Amino acid sequence: MKFAKGLSIGLAIVLMAGVAWGQTELLVNGGFELWDNSTTPTGWDHVENITQEGTEVRSGSYSAKHVGGTKDLGQYISGITAGASYTITIWCKVESGDDSDARLWSYWRSSGSNIGSAIESPYFSATDHSNWSSYTVTLDAPSSADEFYFEVRTYSGATVYWDDFSFVENPLSSDPEPSNHVSSFTAVADNHNSITLTWNDNDGDQPAHGFLVGLTTDSENTFEPVDGTPVADSDGPPDWTRNVTHGTETVTITGLDPETQYYAKIWPYTNSGDDIDYKTDGTVPTASATTTAAPEIPKLIISEVADPKDNTDARFIEIYNNSGGTVNFSNQTWYLSRQANGSTWVDLQLTGALSHGEIFVIGFGADYTKFRNAYGFDPDMSSGFISGNGNDGYFLYYGGDHTSGVLVDAYGVINEDGTGKAWEYTDSRAVRGLNQTVSQGNPTWTASEWTISKANVADCTPGVLDTDQSLPVTLSSFTAKTVKGTVVLEWETSAEVENQGFVLSRQSTVGGRDGFETRPAVIASFATDDALKGQGSTTETTQYRYMDTGVELGKTYIYTLADVDYSGKETILKKVEVKVEAEGAVVADGYALSPVYPNPFNATLTVPFTLTERMNVSIELYSLIGQRIMTVVDREFSAGSYNYTVQAGDLASGIYLVRTSFGKKTYMHKAVLLK
Question: Which residues of 601-631 are buried (b: 16+ CB within 10 A; e: fewer)?
């Protein structure tokens, strides 16, 4: 066929990877990419000694790790056609065993019962399957079969990894060319880089098995497919091709250029491989669409660059989101690039997400240890390349690295050694916003936007946007203290401008990565608590107070205070740290209940509570649908601190509710059981 230059022609994979046209995949989740939990692959009916494996895989993200002892993994397959031909493919890797380690062990079935003898493969052993290898067998369904039981077994002493199972119905014969072209073929631009094509299959006497869709920017040099030569999926420029299964009637093509007109054609076909038969006679349906303009690049800003004099391991870069929405680095490509001494480049792709008004901190080091030791919490990312010693420039790129992306913001001058220059930050911190409002990045470093001052670790403020004249609140103080098992937060403002109110967030120094949390959770907001509402605009001194009762004795917490102005912009003002002392604590209403732990748990769960007076306490375990599983305890307790244990070793993995009652007051905690 004739298509614009550069068309890739090869084997067309029509239905799915490994399954050609005419083969119908009947096995559910044979690639083990879906899991109900870490021990149960989705869609499998009989599961013994299986765990989700994410390292030793043949393809995709997961395989199934099977530890022996005559343990089975099986699935019932319905929709069997009596007399039809079926092909089974199994991929496995045997890690250990005695040469009789695993095998296929299956049955044809009829009306719910096995028929005939077991279908057995040769043994898979560490001798011949030490690397990923496959076993394939083709079977004919008995005349009475309506079901197939697909099972593999792993025997004592063996460890086997399973992946990419397949049970397909084979084609019976080749069919003639499709009778009709499609109807109602349309193209619609979804955005700046995506077009969706839709149609009606328009079946005739001979329905199509699949459809070849072609997209090009050259309206004068379109193409025609050739019978017997399958066209594989390909991406341009200049040409894009897609194979689409019958009944789908739509395909979306991405990776296109903005503000560009694209021309599309579609051909129905039957069969596959050397037998593929395209319908090219008559009028081939066409459509066209023009992509929209590219969207505005989100407003991410480098807000602080730090090289503390007293600790070179405490270097960091801070990025602030002023875009008005969340930037998700999984679907937007962003790089922070460092140029050392105006010469060598290193690029770091950002991961995670950053909400509007939040700060993304990248610390120095191969892991989070160096930054945590210096500042007491984890950065959002950590990299050994955040090693700028005062004369290295940092540059923020969108859509690619320093070789292919768009330069959004710059600290320093490209191809310039910063030694002795206005932007040098040796033994210092460079902060944006202290002397000028900056609303978006600037590809040209501008001295008036920055304040550079000598600094030690104690002077640096990672995760905090330093106050400037544009902020709606002038904060005089923000303190935290423990009072009777609670934390009392107090702050004072000397002026407020268009201030809606405040938001308080809390994080504990346990429970997250390596014992730390990286993101605080909101515990109170002016939107739901009148005590946190701001004064609008005022030059009067205003004092605020909030009591946090949802803390655990003995734990340390970091509180973040933020304000929200009339436009909805949230700005972090300050953070404080406080430890809730256990000794001598008295809890209001006669009791205190802490979160259950560990969570997730394996078999044993602890419910910690403290009583300041004698009262009845009951602890019950419920399923998510409200079914009571067990009553752990229901009796009177004397004043004191308790850590009551829930034994759940006989329960299945899943999510449970722990119902704790103090007299007539009841509380629910969600707990995850993982075995």
Answer: beeebbbbbbbbeebebebbbeeeeeeeeee
DSSP β-ladder status, 159-169 and 24-25: antiparallel
- Report the alpha-carbon distance of residue 482 to residue 264 in Å, rounded: 68
pLDDT higher at 201 or 461 = 201
What are the backbone dihedrals phi and psi of residue 377, each rounded to the nearest 5 degrees, phi first? -150, 170
CA distance 455 to 467: 17
Instruction: Average the pLDDT over 94-118 and give the result.
Output: 87
Does position 469 have pLDDT exceeding 80, yes or no? no
Any idea which residue has 């009791």 for tokens? 591
**Using CA atoms, how far apart are residues 307 and 328, in angstroms rounded to an integer?**
28
Give the Cα separation of 124 and 122 in Å (integer): 6
**β-bridge pairing 63-67 and 50-53:** antiparallel
Minimal CA–CA distance to 559: which of 626, 487, 497?
487
Q: Identify the CA nearest to 34 among candidates 58, 52, 57.
A: 52
For 248, 305, 306, 369, 610, the CA distances from 384, given in Å and listed in that order, are 48, 15, 14, 12, 45
Pair 587, 608: CB distance under 8 Å: no
Structure letter (DSSP) for residue 375: H
At residue 491, the 3 state secondary structure works out as strand
Contacts of 293 (CB under 8 A, 6+ apart): 192, 258, 259
* pTM greater than the 0.85 cutoff: no
Alpha carbon 578 to its chain's center: 32
Judge contact between 63 and 163, C-beta under 8 A. yes
Question: Is 633:605 a contact under the CB 8 Å cutoff?
Answer: no
Q: With CA atoms as reference, report the closest residue to 463 among 343, 325, 358, 564.
A: 358
Q: What is the number of residues in the chain?
A: 675
Structure-block tokens of residue 441: 């990045």
Beta strands in 141-238 (DSSP E): 147-154, 159-169, 183-189, 194-200, 210-216
User: Residue 38 in contact with residue 52, Cβ under 8 Å?
Assistant: yes
CA–CA gap between residue 130 and residue 123 (Å, rounded): 13
Q: Give pLDDT, residue 585.
A: 40
pLDDT at 16 over 50: no
Instruction: Collapse the DSSP code of 368 into the 3-class scheme (helix H, G, I; strand E, B; otherwise coil) and give the result.
Output: coil
- Which residue reads 């079914």 in tokens? 627
How open is the CA angle 412-428-357, to the nearest 5 degrees? 70
Q: Report whether 187 contacts 195 (CB < 8 A).
A: yes
Supply the DSSP string of 225-258, one letter for each residue: --TT-PPPPB--SSEEEEEEETTT-EEEEESPPT
Q: CA 594: distance to chain centroid?
A: 30
Which residues have a Cβ under 8 Å from the Cβ of 454 and sit 6 or more positions away? 309, 427, 428
Closest CA to 196 of 240, 247, 231, 234: 240
pLDDT in tens, 55-70: 999 999 999 999 888 8
Q: Indicate the pairing of strand 85-96 with strand 665-673.
A: unpaired
Q: Residue 513 gets which letter from DSSP?
A: B
Partner residues linked to 453 by β-bridges: 429
The tokens 């004092």 sit on which residue?
543
Taking the C-alpha atoms of residue 117 and residue 207, their distance in angstroms, rounded to an integer, is: 39
